Amino acid sequence: MNIPANDEDYHGGVFLDESDIVQEISSDDEYLPDTDDEARSDSEASDEADDCAGELYTVACSPTDGTLVATGGGDDKVFLWKIGHGDWAFELHGHKDSVSSLAFSTDGQLLASRSIDGLVQIWDTNSGSLKCALEGSRKGIEWVR
Which SMART domains is this protein grouped with (predicted)? Predict the structure, then answer.
């Protein structure tokens, strides 16, 4: 892990470099899913685009469940994914701006999500329900851990 020599530049961030790669897997177009919209109805294609649109800004892995991953991004949503189950487990709504930071609790039961507008929401990872929302200064909270 690469940590800057100058503590002023560090600010608690983690900087990854080539030595942090555990396993690199290259993908081949042959194994990627087809995106042939002609085979699907227009409403199916539209629904699918609405489900997961926008740029991906943050990813977090559960510390207790190796198959549970959370993603957030420019579509103002958080998705909880179960790896190997083919689709997301929960789509979590409530942010009104891009989701920029995610963190699981140490027991994996809760997920904190932070949006660019400063709103932090706490979610139950088993049910996908919103436990609470914490409003702070837009500039006061950059990351959740």
Answer: WD40
